[in-house]
Every structure is written in C-alpha cells, then in structure tokens.
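Cast an eye over this sequence plus tokens and walk me through the fold:

***
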Amino acid sequence: MPTVAELEAALRESRAEVERCRLLLEQHANERLELAAQQKKFASMLSHEFRTPLSTIDGAVQRLEMTGAHHDEGTRKRYRKIQVAVDRMLAMLDEYLSPERMASIGRTRQPDEISPAALLESVVEQARSRRNPVSLRVIGLPQWMRCDPAGIRLCIEILLDNAIKYTEANSPIELLGKMAMEGGVEFLVRDYGRGIPEAELARVFDKSFRGSNAAGIPGSGLGLYMARSVLDVHGGTVSARNVSESGTEFRIWLPVAAASGKSLARAGGNSDNSLDTS
C-alpha cells in the first residue's frame, strides 16, 4: 500500500503533467492564431498585388474594344482572349484566394476529390495553347486524390508558367506525375533552360523574390511563394533543383496515403497504368 509521501509525490507529478498539457494546448492555440493571421495577411497581399495590374489591364482592354471598331477580327479576338484571362484571374481571387477561403483551407482539408491524371492532362492542354512542346507522362498515379482541386491546379500552372517564361520558345517542357519513393505522389516540371543560379535556389520561393535572370520578364515574384503557401496547407512541399545536363526541375510532393477512409487519395485500377502524351 502506498505511503502518504508516495501519494503526495504522485499528486505533484499529476499536477505537473496537467500543467504541461495546458501549456501545450495554449501553445497550439497560439500557433493556430498566428497561422490564421499569416493567411489573412497573405490573402490581403495577393489581393493588392494582383488586382492592381489586373484592373489596369481590364480597363485598357475595354478602352481598346470601345475605340477599335475599325480593327480586324484577329485583333478583336486577341482583345477577347485577354479579357477572358483577366476575368479568370479575378474570379480565382474572389473564389479561391479570398481571406475567408484561405482561412477555411487552413482549418480543414477540403472534401473535394479529383483524378490526378485528369488534372495533369487538363493543365498541360492549357499550357499547350500558349506554347508547344509540352509533354506529359503519368505513371501509376491513384485513381482519385482528395485535395483542393483549384489549389493544386494553380500550383502546377504556376510551375508550368514559370517554365514557359524562362525558356526558349522551341525548348521542351516536361510534366511527370507518379508515386513518390518515400510515399505520396509527386509532380515534376522539367525545363531545358539556363537554370537558376545556385546562390538563388534557396530563395526562389520567398515572397517577392525575383532572380537575376528575371530582367525584362514580367512578374511580381509572388507565383512560387503562392504555390508553396497552398501546398503548405495541404501538408505538401515544393522544391527546385538544377539538372546537371541543363535546365531546372520543380517538384511538388503531396502526402497521399495508401489506405482508404481518411486518406488523401483512394487508389483504384491498375497501379501500373501509365500515360504518355506529347
């Protein structure tokens, strides 16, 4: 039978453990508040950085359409194409990158599911409308993946857009989707451009950072930062490396679990399935 001293010691230890739990809960709550504040700041920054130039473009295109009645049909088609692109970006800001949506993503993972292969095909098709050659390979991806489809699509589009902007017009771009060696899925965007200066590789995902090779290329330095932020709330990562032969490879990794139920993806079909389009 325990003595009074032993009972008092056990009581003190229990109280100490309760205090440690309280402190951990308090720390967790503070971290969540800090994350929410960062997300609101991020969304506000995006709204300012993107809406200002988009509004300028929108107004300029409207004026051109109003005063360009004498322009040929090809020119008017280009005006409409620019207007559609502006409307798409503004809708993305309203529907996906609003402070409320960012906060929601930070709290809970969205219940949406999408076929990763279909997502990659759609993104590549859009990229090819801007420039060829863009090739796609899909190897053994799960049939379904649970994520925020608009967010993951945006991340891949940012990487492809980056590759298009920083390579020659006839230089190939490759997108590969497959299961990662460490588990999960990975999407690799490979270009054959000049690469990123080694001293700048660690900074390419920093907010507003533009590399020394960005002179004369339009941009705000927010695309890669935005991609990393979206992947962070999915529990994923994005990284970049220079390939020894030439060019750069960006890698998106997402923690897709093998089991069903609460997993991020639901495997289906033949895991050896592969798709190669170019």
